[in-house]
Structures are given as C-alpha cells and as structure tokens.
Design goal:
Elements lengths: L2 H11 L8 H9 L4 E4 L6 H11 L3 E5 L3 H14 L3 E4 L5 H12 L5 E4 L1 H4 L2 H8 L3 E6 L22 H4 L5 E5 L4 H10 L6 E4 L7 E7 L3 H10 L6 E4 L3 H13 L4 E4 L5 H13 L4 E4 L14 E4 L6 H8 L9 E7 L1 H13 L4 H18 L5 H8 L12 H5 L3 E3 L1 H13 L6 H9 L4 H6 L15 H13 L3 E4 L5 E4 L4 H4 L6 E3 L24 H18 L3 H4 L2 H10 L4 H5 L6 H16 L1 H21 L4 H8 L3 H13 L5 H4 L4 H12 L8 H4 L9 H16 L1
Parallel strand pairs: 1-6, 1-7, 2-4, 2-5, 3-4, 5-6, 8-13, 9-11, 9-12, 10-11, 12-13
Antiparallel strand pairs: 14-17, 15-16
Bound molecules: adenosine-5'-diphosphate and zinc ion.
Catalytic activity: Couples ATP hydrolysis with the unwinding of duplex DNA by translocating in the 3'-5' direction
Protein name: DNA helicase RecQ
GO molecular function: 3'-5' DNA helicase activity; ATP binding; DNA binding; four-way junction helicase activity; hydrolase activity; metal ion binding
C-alpha cells in the first residue's frame, strides 16, 4: 500500500491500519479503476472512497440516498478537518450558489449529493467543467427493484459511465444477496469494475432466537440486562409499535415510537433524539432503517418475524456498527407465520414473485428452528461457508437439546388430516390431549381415532411441535381455510414411516441461561464507570457545542481505548485509535484533563448524573428504578430529584407517582404551621412506614418553588 494512503489514514482519521480489503480497494480507485464493494455494515466502507478522494486531484462526488446520511458524513468529515459539503433540498438558493462557488474555487474535496440532484442536466454540465476525482455510489442496492430500498433515481446513474469515461466509479453496499449484486453491476454499468467481496459475518453480534411465549415479559427480561444501552425494537404493525413504546416507557425504559403513520416532523424528531441522546430505545417498523448510521446501537430486538433472511440480516446488522459487542434477539411464534402469510397473500405482485417471497419466508423459519450454529446457517444462506460453529450464538452457547419426535409428529399430522385440514393449533392440541369441550363436541372430534392419544406431551410441548412442523415445512398454514393447518407434500415420508424426525426442545424461560454471553452493557467495569461517565459527559458537551451527535466527536471505541490505555500526554493521546491530527488539536487537552485529574473530573460526573437523572425521571422511571440504573443509593436519587424540582427542571408529577389524597395529606402537613415550611424531618414521623422520607423532600421542594413563583 502506498505510504501516502497510510499517512492519510493516520493523520486524518487517526487509524493505524487498514481493515480487511480497504487497502486493496483504495489502491484500485486511487489508480483510476472502478470498484464494486460488498462489505457488511460496520466494515468501513466510507474510508474506501474518502481516502482515494484525498489522494486524487479534483472533486469527489458521493451519491447518497438520504439527507440524514449525508449530513452525518459531512459533519464527521468536518470534525476531521476535511472540506465536505452536502447539496440537498434543505439549502436555500443563495446557499446553493455559495456552495457552487466554493466548488469552482477548488475549496471542497467531497461533495455529497442525492441521485435525483446529480442527474439533473444542469448539475451534470456543471460537473463536466470541473476536474472530478471519483464518483462514489453509496447504498448502491437502492438500484435494485426487488429490495425495499429501491430508488428509481438510482437507475439513471448508469449514464455516469458514458459522461465521465475517465473518472473512476466505486459502488458500495452492505446487501448480501447475489441477485442484488448482479443487478448493481449491470444497472450501474460497472462491467469493468473489480469486485471486492468481504465476508458478511458480523462477529461482534450475538444471535439469539427464542420461542414467543409472553413476548412483553421476555422483552423486558432481555432489556433488563441492557439498561442504558441504545437499541431498536422492531414490530410488524404501527399499532404494535405505539403500544410497545408506551409499555416500555411505563416500565422505565426510555422508548420512542417510529413508523410511517407518524407526522414526518415527529418522525425526524425521534430519529434525531435517537442519534443524539444516549440510551434511547427506538420501537419501530421497518420504516426505520436505512440512514441509521448510529454506531453504538447495542441491540436489535425483533418482536415479530422479518419476512426474509435478507431483511433479518439487514435489520440485525444495524447493531454494533462500531465493532463492540452487540445483540440480535428475536421472539418468534406461529402467529407470526400466519400474519406474514396473510400479508403476502394480500400483497401486490404476480404469482412468481409471491412464490419467491414464500421461499424466503421459509428460509427465515428454518433459521428459527435451526439446531446447528445460527451464524453458520445464516451465512450459508448467503453462500458463505463458516468452517466451524461460531461459539457466539444461542445454539452454540446453550447447546440444543433435541428429541425424537417421530411418533408425536405422526400423531399431529394425522390429527390435521383426520379433522379435514381446517383447524388451528388450539383445536388440534385439544384433540390430541383428549379435551372434550364444546367446540370438540360440536365438531364430533371426540370420536376421532387420534382423540386423546397425545397425553404423553403437555400443551406447551404440542404447540412447540406444531410450530416446528410449520417451520420445517412439514405442515402449512391454509390462508383460504382461515389459518387452519394442512399437510404439505414433504410430510409424506414421515407419515409413511420412512424417516425419523428430530426436533429441538424449547428451553423454559426460567431455565434459560442469562440473556447473552456478550454482555454488551458490561463494556465498562464498575471501577471504570466514573471516568467513563466523565468522558461521556465531556463528549456530550462538545457535541452540543458543535451541534453534532456525540459519536461524531469520538466513537465509543475511542473513548474506551482512552479509558484503558490512560494516555498522559498529547503524544500518548495521538496513538489512540480514532484520534487524528485535527481532533487531537481540538479535543486532546480536554480529554487528557478528564483522564489525568480524577478529582477535578468529579463535578463533571455529578453534572452528568443530574442530566441523566432528569431524563430518566421524565421518561417515567421510578426513583428505585433510577437508583438501580445509575448505581447509586435511592436516598441520593431523592435528593437529586428534589434539587431538580427546585431548579424547575422537573415537575413533582414527573419525579414521583403519588396518589392524590396522599399528596394532599403531605402538603397539608407542610403548610399547617404558619410562616416558613418546616423541614421534612419535622413531619417525617407522621408518614413513617407510608412513604420514603425522600418523597417528603420532593414535595417540599415543589411547594417551595411554587411559593417563590
Ligand atoms: P460502513 O459504512 O461499512 O457501515 P463505516 O465506514 O461507517 O462502516 O465504518 C464503521 C466504523 O469503523 C467507523 O467508526 C469507522 O471510523 C471505523 N473504521 C473504518 N475503518 C477503520 C480502520 N481501518 N481502523 C479503525 N477503524 C475504522
Ligand atoms: Zn454459533
């Protein structure tokens, strides 16, 4: 690799070495060749065109589909001291003229632009008069009509090949499927492009899929181990998104809804908060997706089944872009299959298309019921072979218990067959268990030969078995028959006794091991926490000052390295990965101060705690929950709450959830005497055993601030 490229990597970006195929890609493009780059999320695609842009003469033009993505990139480059601008509809005519002028003067190195803007004849003519270093086409899968990110304007980018025959073009995507790859190459006229295909494995993501039992409870248990982490919870419907977001907030997890049914201002407000604040949970439909470049999303949870492995891979891939441990968690049940099949049946598209979608859904189900390593199975679907089980998924860690289900499966299949292939799982289980209820009697099913033959298994085991029969394609859901189960062709060998069937034994929730071995939320040890919080508080303050998300100042991985390597001097600091010349200059001292002056940093920690406490209280957490989250005594929480009330940062209602009468009683006690309010301790005996003394502090603080007003 050229030493010029390595120097740029270190000086501008602050990194010591290229990752994976970055060096080869950069060399190819810097020398003027075309490239098609297929690299997973978090792989480091941006550098693949940013470094050549700095190596080559002229303006680098980057096509990006979303304003949010462009702005994120521009502010990141800005922080690195690289001259970049985004041309988009949010600029006024005057601002656009100014940008054009700066470009003509050669002051700009990278221009980010939306595809529809780029292909305007005026724009193309403008660019043809300039020296162009390269074209980078980001999110190149948007050119594919099959993906859900299809953008018709991308189809017109093919003409760049003819209009700028001597300018190298690099197309980049994190989409793993082959068909899309071919489509990109063809539609963007990249026949001469060298292809750089990276492994699509995301080694830092821990995969877990659990049978859906009581999904909300299961979700809470999962989240309980990840307090304070940012994450995404995907649901299928808008209604469910709203409900789950409200439910989580009520349970003390700061959560925001996001779906296409919300007004667009609210949507972008929520998105902005998710990017700028730490520890928020976004509950969303798949409308929330592309454009989420937040690197420290620590988990992606699915409460509903995605419709394909492509979708699952993409959605879970939004976790852990920064390379630190992250979790992909999903609860899956038979009801999901029914819903998705219904949606598929009602969708537009011809039969061939629907058949393809049907196969994709089946592949998704197969992953859910997989008994081997999940990662091996997932990657195999994208034609990538992982030599050994990964050791970093639920199946690898917990092991999968299987059992010989041949006989019960045959009983189940014959129950389906005997009742005319019209009934759902509930009824089938009643038949097998021999429950003579009204519905059974009405249908006369108590006379079936299979009635009551299945008492060896309990209800849960039967449900699990039916779910797995559908998951493996041995039985199918009949949409015309109102969701009843029917046999599918592939079950014949089993019915005829020619094959046996091994199924996985569902772990009972209470016996299931702790949520994950990755323990993303335990990145920082208890003894490091104070300094970590101080570093984060400084980062937050700088981010606010510069009006950028915190991760643009420094990603978590860089803060973590500062914490662990404890730089003492600016030259130590320069060695930390992610600290380039410009950032060293701007922020080096400030972060060194926090690291080297433990005691002086303490006020920052307290200020930070206060800030966090107010947000948590506003999000509806109880004092006990806040104490737990901030790892401090409940009494201190009450003190800080009272203080925040005095400073009018919180209302009493936000701080505490008190019954009306009790509140009245406490207020009366304070106001009974004349003159000044008595101290809380003076009335505490009256409420002994009924409320925490801290509650009195808060009520008193509220009265006090009311009187002062
Ligand atoms: P992608 O676009 O492929 O999802 P990014 O370009 O956003 O990935 O890079 C992901 C993260 O990895 C960013 O924080 C980036 O700065 C960092 N990164 C990229 N290349 C390197 C490298 N060679 N060394 C260290 N960090 C890197
Ligand atoms: Zn595994």
């Amino acid at each position: 690799m050229s030493s010029a490229a390595s120097r740029i990597l270190k000086d501008v970006f602050g990194y010591d070495a290229f990752r994976g195929q970055q060096a080869a890609i950069i060399q190819r493009v810097a020398e003027g060749g075309d490239a098609l780059v297929l690299m997973p999320t978090g792989g480091g695609k941006s550098l693949c065109y940013q470094v050549p842009a700095l190596l080559r003469e002229g303006l680098a033009v980057v096509v990006s589909p979303l304003i949010a993505l462009m702005e994120d990139q521009v502010s990141t480059l800005d922080e690195l001291g690289v001259a970049a601008v985004a041309l988009n509809s949010s600029l006024s005519a005057d601002e656009q003229r100014e940008v054009a002028e700066r470009i003509r003067q050669g002051e700009i190195k990278l221009l980010y632009v939306a595809p529809e803007r780029l292909v305007q004849p005026r724009m193309l003519a403008f660019l043809q008069r300039l020296q162009i270093a390269l074209f980078a086409i980001d999110e190149a899968h948007c050119v594919s009509q099959w993906g859900h990110d299809f953008r018709p304007e991308y189809l017109q980018l093919g003409q760049l090949a003819e209009l700028f025959p001597n300018v190298p073009r690099i197309a980049l995507t994190a989409t793993a499927d082959k068909r899309t790859r071919e489509e990109i190459a063809q539609r963007l006229h990249l026949d001469q492009a060298e292809r750089f295909l990276s492994s699509f494995d995301r080694p830092n993501i821990f995969y877990r899929i659990v049978p859906k039992d009581q999904p909300r409870k299961q979700l809470l248990a999962f989240l309980a181990e990840r307090k304070g982490d940012a994450g995404i919870v995907y649901c299928l419907s808008r209604k469910k998104v709203d409900e789950v977001a409200a439910f989580l907030s009520a349970q003390g997890f700061p959560a925001l809804p996001y779906h296409a049914g919300l007004p667009s201002e609210l949507r972008s407000y929520h998105q902005k908060r998710f990017l700028n604040e730490e520890g928020l949970i976004m509950v969303a439909t798949i409308a929330f997706g592309m454009g989420i470049d937040k690197p420290n999303v620590r988990f992606v949870a699915h409460l509903d089944l995605p419709k394909s492995l492509e979708a699952y891979y993409q959605e879970t891939g939004r976790a852990g872009r920064d390379g630190l441990p992250a979790d992909a968690w999903m609860a899956y049940g038979l009801q999901d299959v029914l819903l998705l099949k219904q949606m598929l049946a009602n969708s537009e598209g011809n039969d061939r298309h629907k058949r393809i979608e049907q196969h994709k859904l089946e592949a998704m189900l197969a992953l859910c019921e997989e008994i081997r390593c999940r990662r091996q199975a997932l990657l195999a679907y994208f034609d990538e072979e992982l030599a050994k089980p990964c050791g970093h998924c639920d199946n690898c860690i917990d092991g999968v218990q299987t059992w010989d289900a041949t006989e019960p499966a045959r009983q189940a299949l014959s129950a389906i067959y005997r009742n005319g292939q019209r009934y759902g799982v509930g009824h089938l289980v009643d038949i097998l268990l021999g429950r003579e209820n009204d519905k059974i009697r009405a249908s006369g099913h108590q006379h079936l030969a299979v009635f009551g033959v299945g008492k060896a298994l309990n209800e849960g085991e039967w449900r699990s078995l039916f779910r797995q029969l559908v998951g493996r394609g041995l039985a199918d859901i009949d949409l015309d028959g109102f969701g009843g189960l029917r046999l599918s062709e592939t079950c014949r060998p089993l019915l005829r006794g020619e094959v046996t069937l091994q199924l996985r034994r569902d772990l009972k929730p209470q016996t299931a091991p702790k949520a994950s071995a990755s323990a993303a939320s335990q990145l920082v040890r208890a003894d490091e926490r104070a300094t970590w919080e101080a570093l984060r508080a400084l980062r937050r303050r700088l981010a606010e000052e510069h009006e950028v998300p915190p991760y643009v100042i420094f990603p978590d991985s860089t803060l973590l390295e500062m914490l662990r390597s404890q730089p003492r001097t600016l030259s130590d600091m320069a060695r930390v990965s992610g600290v380039g010349a410009r950032k060293l200059d701007r922020y080096g001292e400030a972060f060194l101060d926090v690291l080297n002056q433990g005691e002086e940093a303490a006020p920052a920690v307290v200020a930070d705690l206060r800030h966090e406490l107010v947000s948590l209280a506003r999000a509806g957490m109880t004092p006990a929950q806040i104490a737990n989250q901030l790892k401090c005594a409940e009494k201190s929480v009450y003190n800080l709450l009272a203080e925040a009330i005095t400073r009018n940062q919180l209302s009493l209602e936000q701080a505490l959830d008190l019954p009306e009468e009790l509140l009245g009683e406490i207020q009366d006690a304070f106001l009974d005497g004349d003159g000044d309010l008595p101290p809380a301790a003076a009335i505490a005996p009256m409420f002994h055993g009924r409320v925490e003394e801290g509650v009195l502090y808060c009520v008193r603080a509220a009265l006090q601030s009311e009187f002062e007003l």
